Amino acid sequence: MGLAIDVGGMWFTCYFFDIKEIEFTFDPADVVDAESFSAVREFVCWLGDSTGREVIVTMERNDHGSMPRLLHYSPRRPA
Questions:
Q1: Which domain holds residue 61?
Q2: In three state form, how does the secondary structure of the chain look?
Q3: Minimum mean pLDDT among 6-15, 16-25, 28-37, 39-48: which range?
Q4: Which pTM does this prediction carry?
């Protein structure tokens, strides 16, 4: 099952492989300037805050644990 959403003119495709892990893909060629990078960053923060979960952006590969983190966001915990 999949879902695609438009974020700042870029398409993020969502895949539900596991109940504990949801994967989004996007075309890095769409990130061409500070504005498009900002849209990615804002989406990552929104996703983390909405789910209360850590969000990690890596290059596409099966073994995400071995990939370097390109972006990382941990939602703020309420005080």
A1: 2-73
A2: CEEEEEECCEEEEEEEEECCEEEEECCHHHCCCHHHHHHHHHHHHHHHHHHCCCEEECCCCCCHHHCCCCEEECCCCCC
A3: 16-25
A4: 0.77
Closest by CA position to 16, among listed 33, 3, 6: 3
Residue 41 maps to a domain: yes
What are the φ/ψ torsions at residue 53 (nearest 5 degrees)? -120, 155
The answer to whether position 78 is within a domain reads no
pLDDT at 18: 78
Tell me whether residue 79 is in a domain: no
Strand duo 55-57 + 10-18: pairing: unpaired
Mean pLDDT check: name the lowest of 1-15, 22-36, 41-55, 58-72.
Answer: 58-72
Look at residue 9 and tell me if it is in a domain. yes
